[in-house]
Fold:
Amino acid sequence: MIELKDVAVAFDDVTAIADVDLRIGDGEFVTVVGPSGCGKTTLLRTIGGLQEPTTGRVRIDGQPPTVAQANADVGVVFQQHTLFPWKSALENVTFLRTLAGDTPNEADARGLLRSMGLEGFEGARPAALSGGMKQRVAIARALHLGADVLLMDEPFGELDEITRDELGVEIRNLWRRERKTVVFVTHSVPEAVFLADRCLVVCGRPGRIEATFDVELPGPRDTDVFGSRRFQEQVAAVRRTLHEAHDR
Ligand SMILES: Nc1ncnc2c1ncn2[C@@H]1O[C@H](COP(=O)(O)OP(=O)(O)OP(=O)(O)O)[C@@H](O)[C@H]1O
Ligand SMILES: [Mg+2]
Structure:
């Protein structure tokens, strides 16, 4: 369980987020959607213990997030990938687990790279990979850590739309198999709806949680969903909220 109580984060001359009250249950898939600069990354970093809240309190399973982070209970995929340039894709996936004092499992790491469409690139250094491929290595790395909580900050930002859709399906499948708690930031409304059980709309300056949508889509979430009426209605509703908040 992730809990934020009355959280605000202020930097020198800007309050990035304010009045954030949020509870995320174990195994939930929550997306956070909102315009650029509304505090999505700040919110995610605060949940992950990488940013201290100015006021309020954050707990992951009752512990401060810094403790959860130190115990490798939280995996983070950053907006900009943070791979080690001198290590291969495979080594990048396994290395964090070594750092966390755990034993990497090479077969698992290879399997994850394969599921991210990177078979054949295990030995490649980040410099030899495209932006989207690097981001997929970073996702495999977070999954390999085995953390119960995954925080993802626009992990598909640099990907083309087709790959993005396919990885979205893949992430949902992984989540269904492993039931991790996922908080996924994006500024794509269709992506936020497609992936979520619950979609948080964040906007304003400082950013606040403007609305919450429970996403119910019948049947499996594959790319056919994009054409369904229910999906399009939900996307339209989220978009409307964003526009209304923006015009205020
Ligand atoms: N370390 C920092 N120091 C000062 N201001 C910051 C810092 N990090 C973020 N901010 C400010 O906080 C606000 C929210 O930034 P944040 O990066 O959280 O937005 P975002 O929603 O993730 O945007 P984007 O969609 O462009 O990634 C912005 O006004 C930004 O300038
Ligand atoms: Mg951001």
